[in-house]
Amino acid sequence: VLIVDDINTNLKVAEGLLSPYSMQLTCCKSGVEAIELVKLNYYDLVLMDHMMPGMDGIEATSNIRMLDGEKPYYTSLPIIALTANAVVGTREMFLKNGFNDFLSKPIDTAELNAVLEKWIPQEKQQKLTRERAKTAALKAQDDSAPMQIAGLDVNAGIAMTGGTRKHYVQALAVFHQDGFEKMEEIRTCLETEDLPLYVTYVHAIKSAAASIGAGDLSNVAQRLEAAGRQADLAFIKIHTPSFLLALETLSHTIREALSADRGEERQDAGNPEILTSELVKLKTALDAFDSAAIDEAVNSLQDFTQAADIGNAVELILHNTLIGEYGEAIVLINALLPDVE
Fold it and tell me: Which pTM was predicted?
């Protein structure tokens, strides 16, 4: 399955929602990259974000449908639109533009399951046994320990990011990074009065914030998006600064909450042999695209981000892993390993 979205938080949320299905997932952040990946690989399904900077999902889908003389693979490949702006007529609009179906964001798990059952080839579907389902439910319950973070409905966020605390924490870590990145992009759009790009970036924050349970921030982003579509520059200039301040505050709050959630530095966090072992495990998992092993290695390495000498390097490795930049994470691991005796 190929997942296409321009904001890392939404990619991480989709990964969390799809994790129970044991799928082989590929993520990318642009329509252009999606086209190249479809040329190089065989996918059973594509989840394509609608609004992206540069080439949007509609244009990317149109280009895929016209690849290589309209070969059956390109014309029949199921492409599902992802949109945070579902209104009456949305489905018909996407169907007319080459999509097979659509999902509203934040993604509802029941709707996602229905789409997967409809479009994934039957021979690749396998029903959960009762015992496996029971084990998965117990694991989700154990993972979902209480959390309190100002500005977030944590229970809603956990439900919308895969149902486990682990996936929610990973989504929060990525949103923290996305928040600071989008702040600068939105400021630049405001300075240049580039309203189409402004709408795209604010739209991205709207859907990402909703997915982690930041409903108030998402609602403000929705109003700013609407103002951008109406070219109401006066409204945008008045309200964007307070919106960016709220986004910055939430990003800092999330970082502090995640640091506190890790607890005290573990006793072996300064042990180079253990660090080397954990990094090797992560590299092996990344090479194999083994999502379960990647999650396990990431969780083990979180404690090492507090270590004085190598904390920043480990945090950068984890950041690249969480946003799907596996190649860059491997490069960083290779650079760090020789320095650990």
Answer: 0.76
